[in-house]
Every structure is written in structure tokens, then in C-alpha cells.
Amino acid sequence: MDMQGLSRDLLVMHKTPAQTQTFEAIVIGAGMAGMTLAHALASAGIEVVVVDRADPAGMLEAGHDGRTTAIAAGSASVLRGIGLWDSIGVHACPIETIRVSDGDSLMFLHFDHRETGDVPLGHIIENRLIRRALFSHAAKRPDLTVMAPARIAEIDRGETGVTVRLADGAELRARVIFACDGRGSATRQDAGIKTTEWRYNQSSFVCSIAHEHPHQNIAHERFLPGGPFALLPMTDLPSPVKGLRHQSSVVWSESNDLVPAIRDLDDAGFTKALGRCVGGFLGEIALASPRFVHPLGLSHALRYTDQRLALVGDAAHAIHPIAGQGLNMGIRDVAALAEVVVDARRLGRDIGDPDILSNYERWRRVDNMMLTVTTDGLTRLFSNDIAPIRAVRDLGLGVVNATPPARRFFMRHAMGVVGDLPRLVRGEAL
Q1: CB 152 within 8 A of CB 167
Q2: Which of 22, 40, 289, 419 has a CB 3.0–4.6 Å from the CB of 338, allowing a cystine?
Q3: What residue ranges do the domains of the chain occupy?
Q4: 210-226: b (≥16 Cβ within 10 Å) or e
Q5: Residue of 52, 35, 20, 321 lying closest to 185 (CA atoms)
Q6: What long-range pairs does 265-269 form, CB within 8 A, spacing at least 24?
Q7: Please, are residues 304 and 292 in contact by the beta-carbon 8 Å criterion?
Q8: How do residues 98-133 score in pLDDT, each as one tens digit?
Q9: Predicted confidence (pLDDT) per residue in 379-428, tens digit
Q10: Between the CA of residue 159 and those of 207, 344, 350, 352, 427, what are the distances in Å?
């Protein structure tokens, strides 16, 4: 669907609502986690409304944030199970190999998808293309309504239900609210839920590059003194840039002390600096997108639920992009929450019941905590050039790479298929 056609559909979806409308669930936040949750619920016949203060048309522009997402194999199963993967996967580049190295060390990790059953380890896709599919399909689901841009004036969560009052005077009533409004979640703050959080002394440069030689579906993660440097395979460009058609996404984390100088380089200077990080194996490179800079930090909510409220995705947890697991954690949240809600509804239970929401929190909290701690530890371990520490971590990389069972274990973790998995992640129907 072209952008003009999608914009017309969005205009139809976002007509001014009647003064009072009743749904089963209200999702606050029309980002990727929020819209995926709404689709999961609607696919099971649960009537849901998504509210966001941002205009969806702005979220679909190429210059919105420039980021790509690594969709792990388990997350692709979720999207497939709720009818979205065909529209998303057509734009995605499979990751068949992951190569992890510590700077210029000879020690590395080499993950090959053939060791886990010949299924891709994941896929790389632009965030805006994911959003486009989410909004496009929303227009076709009778049980999914999107209200955006729409500003929330007041939220009332009572013992028997919730009411969301919009700035235009409309009222939305439901059994439960799912907060998917990001790491700065106003909904979480209004509920008085505290977070553990800090900022890293790093920011990430994000862009895509065109290059001369094919990437062969290999994702590279290089640990440099200033932070991790990820080079991720993308589908070829529809039109070449400076004669170059192959394309990769770059996520370059660097110390904040150096960020201003790198940020202020012109395109030629930035490309030259980038080329030193990439190395010469891709041949000639050129910028294929605008550059973006994102500060990096960690946050984790001390609890995920309150009265008739559950936090999902970045509203509950946000991590460093070192392992590309941020959205994948959110999608596993979606799969688990949708499962407990749908099962409760089939039994005739109130989907906003505290026991239902507690089941979701117990299911997801341990997995999210473990990944949060792991990514934080890896960031601190590898973001330095201290010789003794570098020697120990290089030894660790070499040992894991030489131990097939350990290597397969880490691959399965990267694929998001380890632990107590929801049905959608296992490839089963919701």
C-alpha cells in the first residue's frame, strides 16, 4: 500500500469518536509494542482501542528516527501468528550468521543458523516499515480502533473498570489499560510506579550505508573501546546511492565525550570515520540515510501492574541496544499478556482482574530482569580498553566459540526461543 493510500485509511480510522465508547481494553501508545499488542488481542476477537498523542503519519516518515530492528526468530513467530509477518517479512533481510568480535582481536564468536535447524537467527527491517504494516492492517480489523492524534486529559481506574477522558471531551471505557507509551511512560508515572534507571556515558549513531560488496546476510557486532558497533544486513536499496546498491544498518555506540565532534562532522567526514569502524571488507561505502543520535540508558519498572493496569515493552523495561533485544523483549511481553488475557476471557473472567495481570508480571519479570542485567553487564565489560579485562573477555569469546553446546545455547537465546515461552512464540495459535 502506498503512503497516500495508507494516509487515507488512517484518516478514516481517526475520525472524531462519539462522546462515549466502550471497549474491552485500552492500549496507550501506538508504537510497535502497543500496535502489536492491539493486533494480538484483536486477532482473538477482543475489542481494543489504541490511543496516541502523535500523528501516525509522522511515525511513518523516513526521517522519524532512522532505526532498524532485529526481529528475532521467536518474535517473527509471534508476528506470523497474528497475521502480520507476510507484510513485514517481505521487507526484512534474514540474518544467517552473527559474528561477534572484540575490536581487532583474533578471538571471535561465530553463530551459524544451520546449527539450529536452518531457520534464520532473525531479520533486520526498518522500524517505519514495521509501523506501516501495523497501521495498514489495523484498518482491516473490525475489533481494532486507533485514535491518534488524541491527547489524554484524565485516566480513572476503578474497581470495576477504567475510563479514559480525551482532551476533546470524548470518553473511552474498558476493563483494563495496557501502557505501551515508552520508557518515559506518563501512564506509569501517573500510577506512581517507580523505576530503577540510569544513563550510560554513551550515545548511538544510527544510519544506513550503501556498500560495494554484498553482506552475505552476516550481522557483525564489534566491541570497541567507546562502545559496541553493530553492522546489520538489510535488503538491497531500490535505487543505488553513488552507484552502490547493497545496504546495511549501522548502530555505532560511542562515548559521550566524543559524540559532539562526530555528530558535527559533515557527511564526508562522518563517512570516513565510519569507514574506520567498518573496515574494508564491504568495499566502498556511502551514507544511504540521514544520521540520528540517540542517548543510551537503562530503566526497569519496580512492578509491571497496578489496579487495572499493566506495563508493556519500554514502559516496563528499556535496555542498551548491545544485543538488539529491546523490541524482542516487548514482543515476548505482548505474547505472554495476550495469552493470559485471551485465556481468561474464554473462561468468562474479567480481563482486568488483578490475578490475571499478576500472572503476566510473574511470567515476564524474571526473563526481562535477566536480559536487563546481562546487557548491562556486557556493556560495562566490553566498553573499555583495559588490557587485563580485554584478555579475559577474549578468552571467554574463544572458549564459547570452541564449544558447540555453549554456542548453540547462546544462539537460541539470541533467537528468543529459550525459557517458558508463550504459545505464539512457539508457533502455536493464540
Answers
A1: yes
A2: 40
A3: 3-196+298-415
A4: bbeeebebbbbbbbbeb
A5: 52
A6: none
A7: no
A8: 999 987 776 789 999 999 887 899 999 999 999 999
A9: 988 888 888 888 888 888 888 889 999 899 888 988 999 889 999 999 99
A10: 47, 18, 11, 9, 36
